Amino acid sequence: MNNKLYKIGMRAVHQKDIRAAITEAKKNGFDTLEIHLTSPQFLPQNYTNEQLADLKSLANKNSITLQTHSEIGQSMLLADDILRDAEKKKLKKMVDFSRKLGAVSLTLHPGKAPSYYSGPGKSTTNDNVYVKHYNMLFEDSIKHIVSIAPKDLFICIENTDNFKTDYQKILNTYLKTGKVFLTWDIMKSYSSFQPEKKLHEDRMLFLKKNIQHVRNLHISGPSHGGLEGHEEHFISFFEMFKDKNVPMIIEILSLEEAVQAKKIIRDLEF
Questions:
Q1: Span 99-143, pLDDT tens digits
Q2: How far apart, in whole angstroms, are the C-alpha atoms of residue 74 and residue 89?
Q3: 218-239 pLDDT, tens digit each
Q4: Quick one: 243 exposed, middle or buried, by C-beta within 10 A (0-12, 13-18, 19+)?
Q5: What ranges in the chain are assigned the alpha helix state H?
Q6: How many Cα atoms occupy the beta-carbon half-sphere of 105 within 13 Å?
Q7: Which of the 8 DSSP states describes residue 225?
Q8: Rg (CA), the chain
Q9: What CA–CA distance (Å, rounded) separates 265 from 247?
Q10: What percent of the chain has pLDDT over 70?
Q11: DSSP three-state, residue 232
Q12: What residues contact residue 109 under an 8 Å CB cut-off, 6+ apart?
């Protein structure tokens, strides 16, 4: 396989603004830029429609494909009605922002249920106790996404730490609609970093079954560090996606390490 077929991207977290992030991506040889909507300078309310149109044009002129990523605290598992309504309004705002910016995808996290310590080194989460209730909350959120999903933006659910088997089963049904898609974080699929063997196996079966619905890849070393020394973990994933033409975002905060990771990927033969 020619690994240069992969469009490799960087993430924007601490750059001055979107314009600076686009310039930095172009200068450092990246094809794609994923903008995190957590940082204050990237919040949708900070940009007018005219500014978004200008940034869309700048990205196009520089051949940079734009993506967006929801703010880290976003959740599909909020139990309070007021908070759920606010979350749905925020999602609509992120979707509108992403479309005006010309982004091709928006990545969302499932979110996490409240967690309680139950002794030294022990904890439990509400979705392990109230399983049916949290499955209902997650499915309601997915149904809402399907109801508002536009044709020109892939809304993708990421396999975060809380990507439980029950949530995978729910997604199995709605991926078939063509209205909701997947972002796959390769680092979270390293078998050696999975605390539960069964959960890892379930996730890998889910990925193989739904690989056609993946629209974005994330890659990094453990704890979002560099790739050096971890190549053996992700080559098999490159093989899985070799014919899929899926962009790959390097989720490493340091620009220097992200550039080094890009070189590692480009130099690999698989």
A1: 999 999 999 999 999 999 888 888 889 999 999 999 999 999 999
A2: 12
A3: 998 877 788 777 777 788 888 8
A4: exposed
A5: 18-27, 49-61, 81-101, 126-129, 131-148, 165-175, 197-210, 231-240, 255-267
A6: 26
A7: -
A8: 18
A9: 13
A10: 95
A11: helix
A12: 70, 72, 74, 75, 76, 157, 158, 160, 162
Mind giving me the DSSP string for 72-128?
TT--S---SHHHHHHHHHHHHHHHHHHHHHT-SEEEE------EEEEETTEEEEHHH
- Determine whether domain 3-267 maps to CATH 3.40.50.970: no
- Which residues have a Cβ under 8 Å from the Cβ of 227 and sit 6 or more positions away? 219, 220, 221, 234, 250, 252, 260, 261, 264, 265
Structure tokens at 96: 């509108």
Residue type for position 58: L
- Number of Cβ atoms within 10 Å of the Cβ of 261: 25
Quickly tell me which residue has 């709605």 as its tokens.
174
This model's pTM is above 0.85 = yes
Length of the chain: 270
